[in-house]
Amino acid sequence: MSTPILTAEHVGKIFTARGADSVVAIQDLSLTIDEGEFVCLLGASGCGKTTMLNIFAGFTQPTSGRVTLRGRPILKIEPRCGMVFQSYALFPWRTVLGNVEFGLQMQGVAAAERRRRAERFIEMVHLKGFERHYPSELSGGMQQRVSLARVLAADPDVLLMDEPFAALDAMTRQTMQDELLTIQEASRKTVVFITHSIDEAMILADRIVIMSARPGRVKTILANTLPRPRRADVQLSPAYAALKAEVWSLVQAEVLGHAEATRLRSD
Ligand SMILES: Nc1ncnc2c1ncn2[C@@H]1O[C@H](COP(=O)(O)OP(=O)(O)OP(=O)(O)O)[C@@H](O)[C@H]1O
Ligand SMILES: [Mg+2]
Predict the structure, then answer these.
(1) Count of C-beta atoms within a 10 Å radius of residue 232
(2) Where are the domains of the chain?
């Protein structure tokens, strides 16, 4: 049976900037995510995906509605939700080991235990041997692995991932997707993952949430029933092609609809 872990209930978010018009980033967004589920958010640029993730993490508060983790409102930064940012957000003055240990240090974990846990996750993301390197000495893919290890080491219940692989080359991206799936299948962590790539959503997600253009709302939720384990060759199946066509037409309708509305407004 599925148990809800994370909910957004009629969430709205309005940004009011001094001297500028206010922006309605999110409007009446409701979503329930189950324990152990892998959910991908797909939507046009500026539709409020990052804002929604920041609200789940407790980095910012909604203007209306609420978010909950296991039924409790998220009112401040929520350590049970770990964020992997699009830009790797590593501390340049800390080594790989120092970066991965950071969250554990903040939690007050003793030095020896910290080291042991950090080493385990560095090994999991295949960076053994690079513990003493600094971020500037690593490739983009390696830096993204460090930020994944850092979040995993802190052992959150929910992984919030904001286009984590967008800047990677195609081969590294595929490897990272495989690794993330392996880690998620083993740990059964709940993942909320933002992407612009339909293929990425189809490889990773149990459910694909398609958001409307700004203000962001849930437009459609599609169950991704492609069999697991999913690896790159799943893309060769007819079921894959059929689902991709469906997702693509929904996304396209939203993007084109938005462009049309914008054109009409400016006429
Ligand atoms: N701190 C802020 N102050 C004012 N406006 C903001 C702020 N953060 C986001 N916005 C606005 O809210 C809207 C949604 O932004 P958000 O970053 O959530 O979009 P997104 O869906 O993540 O886009 P992208 O796919 O390009 O990353 C945008 O119009 C943006 O300008
Ligand atoms: Mg964003």
Answers:
(1) 12
(2) 4-80+156-266
Query: How far is CA 136 from each of CA 89, 140, 152, 153, 173, rounded to the nearest angstrom?
Result: 12, 9, 21, 21, 20
Say if residues 47 and 258 touch (Cβ distance below 8 Å).
Answer: no
Q: For residue 208, what are the β-bridge partners?
A: 40, 222
pLDDT the model gives residue 124? 84
CA distances from 160 to 80, 200, 255 (A): 10, 16, 24
Ligand 1: which of 18, 21, 41, 51 to mutate, most ligand atoms within 8 Å of CB? Answer: 51
Asked if pLDDT for residue 266 goes beyond 70, the answer is no
pLDDT, mean of residues 213-217: 87
Residues in contact with ligand 1 (CB, 6 Å cut-off): 15, 17, 23, 25, 43, 45-51, 214
CATH number of this structure's domain 4-80+156-266: 3.40.50.300
Helix ranges, the chain (H):
49-57, 96-106, 111-124, 140-153, 170-187, 198-204, 238-266
Local confidence band at 166 (pLDDT 50, 70, 90 cut-offs): confident
Q: Measured on CA atoms in the order 86, 185, 146, 197, is the torsion positive or negative?
A: negative
H/E stretch holding 10 reads strand 4-15
CA of 112 to the centre of ligand 2 (A): 37
The tokens for 247 are 């997702």
What is the Å distance from ligand 1's center to 98 Cα? 31
* Matching residue, tokens 């789940």: 56
For residue 229, give the H/E element and its range. Answer: none
Query: Whole-angstrom Cα distance, residue 25 to residue 202?
Result: 26
Q: What is the pTM of this model?
A: 0.90
* Gap between the Cα atoms of 192 and 83, Å rounded: 10
